[in-house]
């Protein structure tokens, strides 16, 4: 089995501090003049945050990541537009685009996806999330009850896969309907986007068992991840399928453990996490993340320690790593240079030995 | 005040000439192996998007505002094309047609604001509500014809409401939001210009409330004047002003004879089946399509039977998909006819000619410089 490493695109802000949500590199339109009056600023309003996001995507491409995750954040830019914007500047990246099933017609999402696949040689992928809490969802014009979130995701996926793979395709469900749908000619037989789902609830796991290509677990100890993987495997077995397992985890990795620990503490002080102390378990700092990376826990350690930890997750069954670290541009290079090659080599070595 | 001229991006490939359908650029039709098909996928690492990018750049270099990027069941999609070409173009404005029923209005607002940020404010809409019946259910949309216009109005109410940050609440028949609004800095962008299509009464009612431009296909000139007057009157009642725009195919050549020769060659290459189908179109509830059909003769033996007034040929949909009426003539004649349309109320054009890449240069170099548009003399002439 191949292992993939996805970098996160910081869609709502990025900088070199723990509270990086407040920073939007290259964004000129809204911030005060950054230079003193005594210094010429040649940039004017030429750039904004999109130019930076494009750089991060290219950095991930060059540094050897297999893809990027483009998270949906109501405070940031819209993921589908970002995916298109970075598509032609990158050659290899899988573009895992997050949205929720209230975005509109599933057929329209599928049809747009056909063009993405045609124009990116099949690199487009979906992460469908549950959306935020009630208040958040109402602000997005979405009034369905919590209990309907997962059934609606299931219909969204069913209809999208239906029109992408069959013609004519008809379906009439509670949330979505299509009559004699499907795509012809050049638009037909385009790659069905791999579907990433997440969530800890029984309903979320049951849904992933049925329809997900990847299920994303929040960062946790290797033992806990292993247990959750076993649980999901058992749930998926009756359907004769097995989703791949993805792990979303933040990284603070430096040449030495001391440097990593020092920076991790500084991020914690800078971020807006109040008095909540991270719980440290070996190299895993539960509850530590920066405001934009926002995973459940962070791996803190030397390059070797982080490598070892990621390899342990791989041994537990994880085949997709969703990694993040501020600032995302520089850290993409750091991990691409110092960590990914060693992790890949070790995983390959272990798999060969197991075979 | 001046007029705006847009071009069109072919989103379903295109033939390399009006004269026949092959070779067809892009990967839509299996072709003739002896002819190259630029923009088809296959070993070259180049795809249709590379050809589309060429057209967009040709259009901006040649002096067009930007282009309409049509969306139909068999085409590629305008949101995708716009975001992919954001960095490869400088002034090209992306006119995105879409139907409100396909997207949650808050998501549409977020996408649009992000696209404005990605392009430096070069996104605009062509809001479409027409078409219907089983065709609408193909898209997964089950609303009825008149309901759809009500929904369009509500959709634009919500879009506008959240645009500058909110908090905005709305309780309509089709859409509800609570404390919604775009976040900073998305909330700082220009609201997109709206071109609105639709010929029915329900469409005009919705357009008069929200549209900046009322967009129509080319119809017989007198019929068009009457239509523009009606739209403007309706909008005035609401205390708003609306401009009018025309989407029209053209064939412009150094002489009129050369222009008609293109049509004649294209017409003579048609099959009997294509002509029969043209004379007996499928039933549809689009009023606009019926208005274009209304003035067509019942028997067609020559391309000349489809000339419905000077320099206007009513058979373009035979040579390529889309609308039937277009302007054919010398560079001077085409410019003159366009200026006549300005005099009867047009404020903007979306022009197109096949192949869009080469013709963008031709029309930009030979026709646009001849247009008088809305200079003072043009207005005086209209008044006099």
The computed structural class of chain A is alpha/beta
Return the CATH architecture of the domain at 4-98 and 193-257 and 329-383 in chain B.
Alpha-Beta Barrel
Helical fraction of chain A: 25-40%
Q: How many strands appear in the DSSP assignment of chain A?
A: 13
CATH superfamily of the domain at 4-98 and 193-257 and 329-383 in chain B: Luciferase-like domain
The overall number of domains of chain A is 1
CATH fold annotation of chain A = TIM Barrel
Tell me the overall shape of chain A.
Answer: globular
SSE series of chain A: EHEHEHEHHEEEHEHEHEEEHEHH
Mean pLDDT value of chain B: 88
Distance between termini of chain B?
A: 19 Å
Q: Can you tell me the CATH architecture of chain A? A: Alpha-Beta Barrel
| CATH structural class of the domain at 4-98 and 193-257 and 329-383 in chain B | Alpha Beta
Unreliable segments of chain A (pLDDT under 50, ≥5 consecutive)?
Answer: none
Number of continuous helical runs of chain B? 14
Q: Which CATH C-level class of chain A is it?
A: Alpha Beta
What's the Cα radius of gyration of chain A?
Answer: 21 Å
Biggest sheet architecture of chain A: 8 strands, parallel, barrel
Number of helices of chain A: 11
